[in-house]
Description:
The protein is of the alpha/beta class. Helix content is 43%, strand content 15%.
Amino acid sequence: xxxKSTKILPKATEKKIPTVRKxxxxxxxxxxxxxxxxxxxxxxxxxxxxxxxxQIKEISGVSAGAAMALxxxxxxxxxxxxxxxxxxxxxxxxFQVMSxxxxxxxxxxxxxxxxxxxxGMNLEKVRKSKIKxxxxxxxxxxxxxxxxxxxxIAKLVTETTRAYLLDENDKMQGLxxxxxxxxxxxxxxxxxxxxxxxxxxxxIIESIILNSSSIPPVVSFQNNSKVYFLDGGLTNxxxxxxxxxxxxxxxxxxxxxxxxxxxxxxxxSTFLIKPSRKLPISSFDYTDPxxxxxxxxxxxxxxxxxxxxxxxxxxxE
Length: 317
């Protein structure tokens, strides 16, 4: 009787199921300090964050920082810098004496600034954005008429400017100061914050940014039909406090006086970024197109060096 042959069959090959790795998610709330042309540095950083895929959930800006914030939301950073460079190329002086004889402001800044805002803002993107927006300013005094009122305006601007400069000097030395807060109290001025619901049209958004940037005489004393406004940096130049407590916060500023006296817990939970070296432009120099681009590019270079740390900080597990 023949034995049945036993053949050893090869084992069935197991099909390996490829593991699908989830793409990491990065989220942050971004606060941009005011500082005139220095805020171009922040726009360079914001451009990089966006291109890395960091999802901005909340954004705040004060003064020129507000203009940069809306430029980042509009995704027009590069073209805005090119446009601003062209405008500064055509402007040969930050104080135009001939304008005085024509009854105009000798400072060209406001006109150039308005044109930059209009060029760089994509209204549809800003209005449709789900990102929470916060823009800080200071409501100054009620709008009235008469010679006494104009005297009040001159007095308010002079007192406020002096108090601010003295406070900044004390902050640089690490000294506590309260001159601005006393001025605010004496004149019954109030900090206010605009949000998405206020951004109803291009004209209103432009006015809001100018309200936040009102620094007489360089940027005129802004007003609507009822009240005057002053630069939001008087009370808070880096609006971190409006963000949700659990958010991953990134704050961009240019001088240590900006964060002097801020709540320690907020600062410790924020990824703070400031220039690695002296910025190539001053706040109100609207005559140097090369410095405009250099400041913007310096923001990109600085943040590129911090990329691993920032992405780790912003990563949502």
